[in-house]
Amino acid sequence: MADKDKKEAQEAIKEEMAATATSGKGRDWAQLYKKEDWWANWLGLALLLFALVAFWVATPADAPEQLAEHEAVVEYEEERAPFATIEQIKAQDELDAVQARDYGLGPAMGWLIQRPKGWDDNPIEAFYMSESRAAEMREEAKPAYEEAQQATEEALAEAEEAQAAAAEADFEDEALNEEAVNAIDAWLDARDAESSARSDANVSGYNVIPSMILLMILTGLMFSIGISFMGGNVGTFLVGYPIVFIISIIGFFIGNHAIASEYGLSYVLWCIIIGLLISNTLSTPGWVKPAVQTEYYIKTGLVLLGGSILFGLILMIGAPGIVVAWGVTPTVLIIGYWVGNKYIKLPSKPLNICVAAAASVCGVSAAIAAAAASKAKGEELTIAVGLSLVFTALFMFLIPAFVVAVGMNPILGGAWVGGTVDSTGAVVAAGELLGPGAMYTAATLKMIQNVMIGILAFGIAAYWAVKVEREGSNVELSVGAALREIWVRFPKFVIGFVVASVFFTIVYESLGHQMGETIVSDGVLGGWANPLRAWFFAMAFTSIGLATNFRELAKYFAGGKILYHYVFTQGFNLILTLFLAWLMFMVVFPGITEHLMEIR
């Protein structure tokens, strides 16, 4: 084993032990600006609050009256007819047309967060289209648009006639109601076709390169603030950051190709693949590595994600999620440790608990916590972390592929991912491959599981003091010590995630549904946080690829008892997590799963 690996592992253990040792000596306020989790909170919350102020101030003063007027029409029509009438649909269109992103800083913010556009046979059009080319396309699309307009007008006339006939019978004639519904559906289909033709007929020239360059500069400077306070080298970070950002652009570029879009091969996959190709062929250059900050990017993105998940949804996922995460995690840890001792007969108990913790909780963080609690050697932690990284890289692709191949419910698949894939970044990447609802489920369940790190670390330390190394132990076995241990190891970015969710839930509810949709859903989230989150996730997935070198990890597949132990523990974890996730999400709480399936 390389001396460098041993040294890094030993330093990680010492850092964890130092954090635990000082946890009871008053409040260490420096943690608020020296730790990655807190910087993810500050940056994510600052971005959300900036957007809220920008969109709230810019929304027209008469927007509430406009929305109330159209909403009254919708409510009246819902009472009047047993189906969505033409008037109701048009009023809903007017409601949807009031968008906060169209006012004030909204257009400029939308310009800044642009990504490569969809393309088919001309890759340049993902980034640039001249106005002359756009004029040619408008001219080519004009006949189809005019034809679609005519078809929509005819379909509307037929729908109005059918609805009028149903209204004359006070909507009590089922046959007339059905005819009206069919005619309105045909009008909606024609209108959708017209909308698509209108997009082609109204295309204009664009150039997304300047906005992406500016976004790269601004986000690089933003992240460098945290790097500076955390003791990193801002200069080396900023040198490597453009490479991470450019690879993310390439990931979006490939993912937006027509064929990739058709088969759901999104940017997530391509960012990871490109990173892996670089790290496993040319090898990630040393000057790029300071910008490979997977957890920093993903945690900041997750705080933004918190703003888009109303707190009720977190509570909804939390009910089955707690059973899955908190039921599986300690069970797998205990069984894994027991099997490692009794049957596999690992030579070292600290090594045993480190491997079991890495496989059962959340990989690297859990292994470090277990190593500090059990006083493991540096090389023992290195082995546990190495195995965790190998299987994380594999499961990140294999589990989503298996879920899709067998036709598993994506929400169930997301819960399975959240409980078994070992790092937060990989969990989000795997969840994204299954869809938005699956990603929300996976990320939330993983955060619930992460809370177990401190609890299990205290449990391991207590077990070591009472059962393994009784003599000379100075572990404090008290409720206060347990709570301090839990707080020290608690993933602080979860606080930002929950605060964002609670705050924007309160804002949304206080504004009312329609204004909440306009300012929060359309403005803060749709016009800023969600696209920006995609950029941060892309950089995190790129970093995962750049940081994963299979040649370096191959040594952990050398065979022997340690590998057998990890495979057994992780295999048991996969089976138990899938069973409990199926029980909770498909049997006990099927309504929650149905609701999550509707997320787009």
Describe this structure in words.
With about 600 residues, this protein is mostly helical. The protein has helices at about 5-20, 30-35, 35-60, 65-80, 85-95, 105-110, 130-170, 175-200, 210-230, 235-255, 260, 265-280, 295-310, 310-340, 350-360, 365-375, 380-405, 410-420, 425-435, 435-450, 450-470, 480-490, 495-510, 515-545, 550-555, 560-590, 590-595, and strands at about 130, 205. The protein contains 27 helices and two strands. The longest helix has about 40 residues, at about 130-170. The protein starts with a helix and ends with a helix. The model has no long low-confidence stretch (mean pLDDT about 85).
Which features would summarize this protein structure in a list?
mainly alpha, 27 helices, 600 residues
In short:
The chain is an all-alpha fold and 600 residues long.
SSE topology sketch:
Blueprint: H1 3-22, H2 31-34, H3 36-58, H4 63-80, H5 86-97, H6 106-112, E1 128-129, H7 131-168, H8 174-201, E2 206-207, H9 209-229, H10 234-255, H11 258-262, H12 267-282, H13 294-308, H14 311-342, H15 349-360, H16 364-374, H17 378-405, H18 410-420, H19 424-434, H20 436-450, H21 452-468, H22 479-489, H23 493-511, H24 513-547, H25 550-553, H26 561-588, H27 590-597
Antiparallel strand pairs: 1-2
Helix pairs in contact: 1-16, 1-17, 3-9, 3-13, 3-23, 3-24, 4-5, 7-8, 9-10, 10-12, 10-24, 12-24, 13-23, 13-24, 14-15, 14-20, 14-26, 15-16, 15-17, 15-26, 16-17, 16-21, 17-18, 17-19, 18-19, 18-20, 18-26, 19-20, 19-24, 21-22, 23-24, 26-27
